[in-house]
Amino acid sequence: MLNLGAGEVILILVVALLVLGPKRLPEMARGIGKFMREFRRQTDEVRSVVEREFYRMDQDVGSGLVETQPQPSSLPVQAPRPPASLMEEASLPTDPGVPGPPSASVSAPPPGTVKAASNGSPEGA
Asked: What's the pTM value of the predicted model, to 2 decimals?
């Protein structure tokens, strides 16, 4: 796996013993062992799930249970809905001779005019 010889492994163990000490080296070895065991268990579990799903798909294809309808290449896209206030304005009659609801008769002041504040001074001044 790592192509290490016996001498190299002994050298690594001696360096680890000198760095970690005789009390921490067994604890470290146990921790590494637990990690490797858990890692192997997780990879085996993932491998078995993938193999099981592939086997199930193979059985479904072989028995003809899989539907062969073509899948759409892209999903349909819907335009976003406009706000409700715009929907109300769009539903109002367009004939100027027909009076609309009272809320439609209120309009903004023409551009360029200054709206007076409640204290009598112009806004923004």
From this structure: 0.39
What is the C-alpha separation between 100 and 53, in angstroms, rounded?
A: 64
* Residue 92: closest CA among 79, 81, 105: 105
Which residues are CB-contacts of 119 (< 8 A; sequence separation ≥ 6)? Answer: none
Classify 122 as helix, strand or coil: strand
3: its two tokens: 């192509």
Cα gap 106→85, rounded to integer Å? 14
Q: Are 10 and 18 in contact (CB under 8 A)?
A: no
What mean pLDDT value characterizes the chain? 75
For residue 72, give both structure tokens: 């759409």
DSSP string, 24-39: HHHHHHHHHHHHHHHH
| Inter-CA distances, 104 with 58, 95, 101, 110, 123, Å | 65, 13, 5, 16, 25
